[in-house]
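Colleagues,

For the teaching module next term, I've prepared a clean inverse folding example: a structure given as tokens, and then the sequence designed for it. I'd like students to try predicting residues themselves before seeing the answer, so please don't circulate the second half yet.
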């Protein structure tokens, strides 16, 4: 009798997992057709390293074919404007983990942000995606199961040990040093334990470069959130360090170590890390890591270099600048500022030769979907927050003014226009720290691509540069 009951239970379990599997396949097949590798995985398939080991030969073959069959196909013309203008619009990099469309925004391995929110495992039903899930997606091109994400969370937690000398290196800097300087110093100190460097010194074959790169990449991703939290607590909370909680996922644990334990802040951090991970390869931080890595510098060296680019105000530091700018608006005009007053404030900023932080983009030509999903989070969790309402007003006021300037190619808000007010609402008010949060998140995209750079044997990056004289002569000859 008992045996029959067990058999019956096993049958129903089987039917229920089969229908779950069917619904996931249906859900996934309705997504963008460009998701080449999207497929259901068995729950036992939780070894990320093994997954990559299987995928790499396939992708090496693909690249080899691309090169031999299409190597001489032209991708477009290079103009003098492009050379002078920071290589805008010049296709010159291979970056597998994500692709940016000027109108639609970012797609991670073919999936838009709303699609990721739909299919990636969450901590709570219908909640924000777990960043580890996005990391799995970036690395493999496959949507992971919850079991796979949990296994990756566990793996990352086991790698999050920080040698003492890292803390010493950070505390040797004045407490007033910019948090990004402290962060880059911490990452450089972590480099001492690079597996890639050790393996290279021992003479590892280039066919195996990706393996120590993988170890460094996962160690680094695991460690940066601990180092970043240490810097925050050192600077703003009297050095009272909060140890990691082994029961928490990456985003929630990061929030916990910073000192923020409300479930909403945990959700915000999961969303924050997820959307900041990657933005194709040409942006300053991603490109820097790719370039430095192409010299076979290990992931720590490459990522530290990327952080120094992220620390620039036209790139990652813009999130700090936005909140400081918004706070200066409130200081001068109060929270209930009218649209007319706001317009005047924007013109004052522009007339003093500054940019309006949080607006514009090198590639995007529409509102950044990373802005939109943060706005949706705010509408759900903090609709009455006065700074959120100010951000909403800016959305109405700034684009027409930037359009009126006549030279701004994208008058719409970017990711940084929104992130600060959300963090500020939940108590993370120290704007100077914000770019560190961006940096922690970016480690996932940058490190994922670095593994593929080594797996696919990408060469040393070495574009040709020319002088103004060379350009003048070239153009004279072309005209004659
Ligand atoms: C992101 C950014 C650096 C892109 O630069 P870009 O690709 O050169 O942008 P554009 O081609 O539209 O720039 C053309 C002109 O418009 C100006 N412009 C662009 N965005 C502007 C803004 N938000 N406020 C004022 N002026 C802006 C540029 O400074 C440039 O002026 P110039 O010709 O006098 O040098 C730029 O939009 C910017 O500075 N934004 C504010 C900072 C920011 O939010 N950065 C985060 C980006 S995610």
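(Answer key — instructors only)
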């Amino acid at each position: 009798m008992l045996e029959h009951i067990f058999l019956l239970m096993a049958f129903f379990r089987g039917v229920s997992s089969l229908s779950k599997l069917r619904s996931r396949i249906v859900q996934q097949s309705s997504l963008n057709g460009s998701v080449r590798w999207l497929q259901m995985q068995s729950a036992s398939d939780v070894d990320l390293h093994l997954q990559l080991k299987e995928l790499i030969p396939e992708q090496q073959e693909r690249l080899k074919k691309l090169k031999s069959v299409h190597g001489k196909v032209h991708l477009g013309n290079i103009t003098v404007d492009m050379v002078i203008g920071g290589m805008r619009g010049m296709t010159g990099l291979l970056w597998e983990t994500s692709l940016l469309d000027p109108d639609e925004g970012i797609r991670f391995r073919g999936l838009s942000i709303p699609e990721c929110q739909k299919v990636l495992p969450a901590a709570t039903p219908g909640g924000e995606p777990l960043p580890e899930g996005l990391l799995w997606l970036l690395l493999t091109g496959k949507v992971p199961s919850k079991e796979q994400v949990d296994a990756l969370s566990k793996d990352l937690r086991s790698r999050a040990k920080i040698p003492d000398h890292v803390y010493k290196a950070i505390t040797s800097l004045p407490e007033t040093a910019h948090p990004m300087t402290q962060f880059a110093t911490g990452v450089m100190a972590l480099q001492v334990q690079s597996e890639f460097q050790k393996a290279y010194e021992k003479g590892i074959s280039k066919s195996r470069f990706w393996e120590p790169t993988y170890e460094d990449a996962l160690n680094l991703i695991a460690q940066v959130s601990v180092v970043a939290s240490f810097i925050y607590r050192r600077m703003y909370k009297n050095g009272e360090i909060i140890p990691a909680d082994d029961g928490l996922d990456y985003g929630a644990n990061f929030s916990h170590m910073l000192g923020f334990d409300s479930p909403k802040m945990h959700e915000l951090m999961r969303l924050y890390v997820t959307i900041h991970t990657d933005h194709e390869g040409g942006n300053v931080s991603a490109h820097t890591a790719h370039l430095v890595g192409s010299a076979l510098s290990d992931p720590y060296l490459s990522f530290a270099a990327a952080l120094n680019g992220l620390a620039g105000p036209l790139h990652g530091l813009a999130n700090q600048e936005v909140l400081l700018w918004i706070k200066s608006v409130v200081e001068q005009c109060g929270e209930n500022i009218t649209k007319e007053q706001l317009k005047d404030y924007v013109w004052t900023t522009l007339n003093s030769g500054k940019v309006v932080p949080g607006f514009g983009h090198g590639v995007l030509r529409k509102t950044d979907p990373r802005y939109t999903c943060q706005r949706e989070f705010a509408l759900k969790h903090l609709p009455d927050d006065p700074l959120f309402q100010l951000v909403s007003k800016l959305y109405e006021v700034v684009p027409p003014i930037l359009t009126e300037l006549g030279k701004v190619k994208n008058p719409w808000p970017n990711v940084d226009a929104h992130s600060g007010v959300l963090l500020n609402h939940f108590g993370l008010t120290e704007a100077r720290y914000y770019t560190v949060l961006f940096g922690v998140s970016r480690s996932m995209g940058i490190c994922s691509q670095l593994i593929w750079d080594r797996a696919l044997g990408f060469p040393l990056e070495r574009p040709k540069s020319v002088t103004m004289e060379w350009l003048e002569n070239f153009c004279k000859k072309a005209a004659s």
